[in-house]
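Much of what follows relies on a compact textual record of a protein's fold. Each token is a code from a learned vocabulary of local backbone shapes. The record below shows the convention in full.
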Amino acid sequence: MGSKYQRSVRGCLPPWALILQGALIVLFIFFASSDPSSSENQKSLLGTYQVLQDVMVMAALGLGFLTSSLRRHSWSSVAFNLFLLAFGVQWAFLMDGFLSQSFNWTVPIKLYRVHLAAMSAMSVLISMGAVLGKANLVQLAVMALVEVTAFGAFRMLTRSVFQKDDHATMMHIHVFAAYFGLTVAWFLSRPLPTSAQEKDQVATSPSLFAMLGTLFLWIFWPSFNSALLNIPNERNRAILNTYFALAVSAVTATSVSAWIHPHGKLSMMRIHNAVLAGGVAVGPSCHLIPYPSLAMVLGLVAGLVSISGAKCLPVCLHSVLRIHDTSGIHYTFGLPGLLGGITYVVLMAFEISWANSAGVGYQVLIDTGALSLAMAVGLVSGLLTGLVLNLKIWRGPHVAKFFDDQTVWEFPHLAVGF
């Protein structure tokens, strides 16, 4: 008896994936070159590589396992995450060079550029959480291509128009990626049949692996927030403030999860959503906060915002806006990211006023404009991506096959004919 699932993805995935990879190799041949004049010494190279390792652990293990809590979709969550990371880093490296003001038909290969590319590629991994289980790997690859390009363009505009450094532009990644992913999910979301609703549920073992991903992110988040800060005092302050904000958001998430449950029980999904909120919210201003107590307050507020959003907003998103956010990226990254952006605007205004300098209003306008641009570019590029991904050429999964590894993975113990 034949299986109800499609027999293979041979006719769709290999051609598109190999064509894209071949195109990237050609671009590297013509535009990427080693930089013999690099001034990076051995000590700075080791420091950059250590931070790059931390970022890769966050991207490959943290975000990979974070989204693996669904009952029948854990294999795809982890493996698709690795595929998009590998593809996204290559394209982000080239885009960062192409959009650089110093681009002169060659992109110098430096470890720092690879580091920036890895952080930029994490935008795709965050957005994937909103559409996971509703898109095949080819659609996700196309989404990665568009999103990395849009995020690179946003960072270029923010640097040139708003005169922001790499840290300030990168810390808007949470807002950009969350609302990009939600917009794409709006196009891919469909009314779920009963069979798909049953698969859109968490299970004990996958939730444990998702918690493992949360722990990886929790441990290495200070490296992400401090990676692009060059002044030692600012980097030290960023690390400490991020640790304290994460600690408070973890305590807040656990306690409030039991508080809002009618029987006083903990919710693993809500803890996943809110434990990391402090690290997300403190990111833009981690180097500006003078006292750890302020970072702790921000972590408390971020945890409350995240877990409250996870409790109250799904009904609005699902019923009113018809957006199915598979992994809750809106509450994990979007809302805390907005809180962090607003906090950065306020702290920058206070810093200028304390220095008795003119231009407080101008600074507020600049910082608000950068945050608004991140959301606007995310929404517009997500809108265009959603329209493209709805085309039939990508052979998107049928709604009855949402959230199911069996659609694309080989399970040797199943009947022949799968």
Summary: The two ends are 9 Å apart (CA to CA). The longest helix spans residues 360-389.
